[in-house]
User: Fold this.
Amino acid sequence: MRKILITGALGQIGSELAEEMRKIYGSDNVVASSRRIKEGHEKLIESGPFEVINVNDPETLASVVDKHKINTIVNLAAILSAVGEKEPQQCWNINMNGLYNILEIAKEKNCMVYTPSSIAAFGPATPKDNTPQDTIQRPTTMYGVTKVAGELLCDYYYKRFGVDTRGVRFPGLISYKTLPGGGTTDYAVHIYYEALRNKKYSSFIQKGTYMDMMYMPDALRAIINLIEAAPDRLKHRNAFNVSAMSFEPEMLAESIRKFMPEFKLDYDVDPIRQEIADSWPNSLDDSYAREEWDWNPEYDLDSMTKDMLEKLRIKLNIQG
Assistant:
C-alpha cells in the first residue's frame, strides 16, 4: 500500500493533488505538509493527516516519514520563477537544499521520490518549437537553474543509490481552485477571473508570446500516472516533457470570446516576466512520455476555457 507524503501541499498543485490522492489512496494514506499553516486551507488540513514541515529541517522530515511509514514522497515545496528572481538565494535554498534533504531521507528509508521540473529548465539556446526531450538546457533564471540541477541530482540518486526518482517538466498550469504563486505563466489564470469580474484584462505577457500550458486536472493525472508507471518502461525519469496546448495571449482571449463575446484584452507588460517567458520554449515534444507511460492530455484550449468559466462562475457567485 502506498503511504504518501506531499511537501508544499498548500500550494497551487499540492492543494489539489492532496485532495485527489486522498480519493484514490485513502485519506489516512496521504500526509499533506507545509512549512506553515495558511488560511483558507482548513478543509484540506482537516480531511487527513497534516504536518508542519520545512524541507530544510531534515530531522523533522525523517521523523514524519517514520511516523507515517511513508514510502512515496511528492516534493512540491518550491519558490517559482518570478519570485525566484526577486529572492534567488531563497529559491536555491528551498528548491535545491530541500530536494537534497528529501533524496537523502529517501535513500535511507527506501522511498520513491516524485519531484516536478518545469519548462523553465530550458533557456534561450534551446530549440523553441517542439522542444526535444533531450536537448541543451541553459536557463537564465535561478528557478530554471534549480530545475536543471534538480533533474540531474534526481538522476544521480537513481543511478548511484537506486532511489526511484521520477518527474515531469510542467508547462504553465491553469486552475480554478487555487491561485498561482508567482510564476511567469500566471496571466493565463488571472485572465479568467478578470474576464468574469470586469470583462477585460491587461496581460503582463506580450502579444505573440507562446508558452506551453496545461489544465490542472491533466497535471494531476500526469503526476499520478507517472508514479504508478511500471519502472521497467521508464528510460528518462527526470524529467519527462509533458504538454497539452501551446498558446499566446490573443489566442486565449479568442477562446474566452467564444463564451463571452464582450471580453477585451490589452497589455501592461512586466519586463521581468516577459524576459523570462522569452527564454522559454514555445512548445514541447512529449512523445517520450506518451511512449513510456502512456501520457495523453484530455483538455485542449477551448474545453479548458469552457470548464474554467463554468467553475469560476460558481466559485465567484457570478450569474449569467
Notes: The mean pLDDT is 94.
